[in-house]
Amino acid sequence: MSDSDDLFVREDPIFEQKELLEINHLPDEGRIVGRDEEMKNLANAVNPAIFGQSPSNVLIYGKTGTGKSLCAKHISRRLVDIAKEEQVTADFAYVDCAQDSTETQAVQTIASSLNQPDETGVKIPDKGIATATYYKRLWNILDSEYDVVIIILDEIDKLEDDDILMQLSRAGEAGKVSNCKIGVIGISNKIKYKEEQLNERVKSSLCEREFVFPPYDAPQLNEIMSARKDAFRDGVLSDGVIPRAAALAAREHGDARQAIDILRYAGEIAQSRGAPKVTEEFVIDARERAETDRFRELIRGSTPHSRYVLQALTVLSLNNDENDGYRTTRIFDIYKEICRQEGSNTLSLRRVRDLLKEHAFLDITKQTRHSGGSAEGSYTNHQLLEDPEVVRDVLADTIE
Ligand SMILES: Nc1ncnc2c1ncn2[C@@H]1O[C@H](COP(=O)(O)OP(=O)(O)OP(=O)(O)O)[C@@H](O)[C@H]1O
Ligand SMILES: [Mg+2]
Question: Ligand 1, residues 20, 28, 33, 69: which to mutate, most atoms within 8 A of Cβ?
Fold first, then answer.
């Protein structure tokens, strides 16, 4: 009997509350670090909802892991609580547009999350009714149940078109709803989202306020991780681990998700090696894992052409050895070849340039400007920040 008992460990030796480091964990208010200004701005924009007036529509931009989704949800939740104290009935709906990318899916999600079937008697089936019917039911729910609602459209750039934005932003003036006020919080990490994907009407109504969330610096990441120390058992986490992880993560992207991942992986590595403590030496491997995860997620979320452009730069990087990167036009030539092989139309050079800018914004690549001397104008070079072989493998994995 004792033999088989030895096969199992009865308690996790490293983690006490591992959920604090899981991706979907929502820290409580006291644990949201370094976003005071951003939260104040957001609160300010939606504040009129508390006295039953129209909240401003907001667009939030920022790199991955800068707390956009977290702060939007947090502010919406707080707003609903305070509105309640003021006898204003408010609620919010959260839509992940990467999941619900069609107009029908998005309106279905909003309607079902705001519906209270016992009170409204309205049914919102998962599918099988026309988009227009979902809207009709949504407007009914809004007018019969709420004074105000906030609709968070996260990863808004993943919506197939802006029809739903048109509907939501015009619901009041078009007479679709008469009692309920609607506020939209759109979130994106595409800098060019507004210019490229929105028509003028939607643009002016959706973007009443715009906020950019900056990356976190090392002290902020340090604090974000320290607030989750309880994930570990007492005495297991060596003192140097968090500062080291914070320094690495800040130097790279200032991404809180990556910082938290590093901490979780460091614990898992200690666990798998049977080490009694999580020490600094595990941070290096943990960082590498977190970096590949981050990169994989970014690629997974990108469009085919955005991947073709990256693939073109990867082909160049694998076959050449140039230290200062590759010019846009060279990347464009290979990109066209890839499109031909894929049986796809090519985008214009200007669009490809924009896609390269997006990659640079998300720290997948680095851009440098060069002045070409008197004979030629200035030009931009692009370099992968990841090992080209890793990029090639990730691209191969993510292409369906
Ligand atoms: N200020 C903060 N304090 C505590 N935890 C934070 C903070 N900012 C982000 N986090 C944590 O980091 C992770 C990433 O944050 P969040 O999902 O809000 O990023 P995001 O800006 O929406 O990124 P993406 O563009 O990739 O969606 C989450 O687990 C979140 O709980
Ligand atoms: Mg997010």
Answer: 69
Residue of higher predicted confidence among 261 and 378: 261
Distance CA 272, CA 140 (A): 54
Pick the range with the lowest mean pLDDT from 103-107, 140-144, 205-209, 375-379.
375-379
Ligand 1 contact via 65 beta carbon (within 6 Å): yes
Using the atom order of ligand 1, give the atom closest to the CA of residue 155. 27
